[in-house]
Design a protein that fits this description.
Keywords: Methyltransferase, Transferase
Distance between the termini: 38 Å
Strand order of the largest sheet: 5-4-3-6-7-11-10
Strand content: 15-25%
Shape: globular
Region (Disordered): 1-23, 238-269
GO molecular function: methyltransferase activity
Number of strands: 11
Organism: Streptomyces brevispora
Biased composition (Polar residues): 252-269
């Protein structure tokens, strides 16, 4: 099933959405290479963020996803860049995007290509990416999974692959959160305003994806981390597409990563 998505769904996110991950606790954690760092819900519940793993090299679970990549890869919410760096080290064309300047800087120091950009802004090579990654909970970006799935479809080439890491629980949660480093309120800067976030288990992601025309390509678990690979079906109307099927999303080809020999599926470790 497909539907036309209003252009209002593709507008640039609010200043609040794009600056929250640039707040001091996140930037400090990336610079230091460790937490503590949490997403704090408005009811006080804390979700620990695995900064140490993000700042380390790609592990076996990461590689289980990277081995499935096809063509050029866009890592949405690349964080400190371990996945982009791992792909680049294997000669694979890859680009990370992140709304955190600290994350982009760290990715570039590791030898990866990265842009300070939100997924909801115009991106290089729209409609030409072979694989999009939404790892480390990034399926929650924007707090609206259907909107993110539509936007992802507009970035991918027809038949392209979305690889998403899901929550280990069967959960479908839309919340507002703040970044929190665990310090007492009087010992830390005033927090940024809450921003929308989502958490999805595999069943919830599939419930959202299938009616939009996504095809399930694979499901697996590695080191307790569940993943789903979705294939962009030909019938998906993307977030930049009108009812006539024309693609309204701009392509910024000057920023597209240079061609390398790594445009086939990634193999080996």
């Amino acid at each position: 099933m497909s539907r036309t998505v209003p252009r209002s769904e593709t507008v640039r996110p609010s200043h609040q959405d794009t600056t929250s991950w640039s707040a001091d606790p996140y930037a400090d954690a990336l610079r230091n290479g460790h937490g503590p760092l949490f997403l704090r819900r408005t009811d006080g519940w804390l979700l620990p963020l695995d900064v140490e793993r993000w700042c380390a090299g790609a592990d076996a679970a990461d590689l289980s996803a990277l081995h499935r990549c096809e063509g050029p890869v866009l890592d949405i919410g690349c964080g400190p860049g371990r996945l982009v760096a791992a792909l680049a080290a294997r000669g694979h064309r890859a680009l990370g995007i992140d709304v955190s300047e600290a994350a982009v800087a760290r990715t570039q120091r590791l030898g990866g290509s990265a842009l300070h950009r939100s997924v909801f802004e115009p991106l290089p090579g729209e409609g030409r990416w072979g694989t999009v990654l939404l790892v480390d909970g990034n399926i929650g970006i924007g707090g609206d999974p259907r909107r993110l799935l539509h936007r992802t479809a507009s970035v991918l080439a027809p038949g392209g692959l979305l690889i998403a890491e899901t929550a280990p629980q069967d959960i479908d949660e839309r919340v507002r959160v703040q970044l929190d480093d665990g310090r007492a309120a009087g010992a830390r800067p005033a927090p940024a305003a809450p921003f929308p976030w989502a958490r999805l288990g595999t069943p919830a992601l599939l419930r959202h994806a299938r009616p939009l025309g996504w095809l399930t390509a694979d499901q697996w678990e590695s080191d307790g981390r569940p993943f789903v690979a979705l294939r962009r079906g030909r019938s998906v109307l993307t977030a930049g597409q009108g009812a006539d099927g024309t693609n309204g999303a701009p392509v910024i080809s000057s920023q597209f990563p240079r061609n390398t020999s790594g445009d086939s599926s990634l193999t080996g470790s």
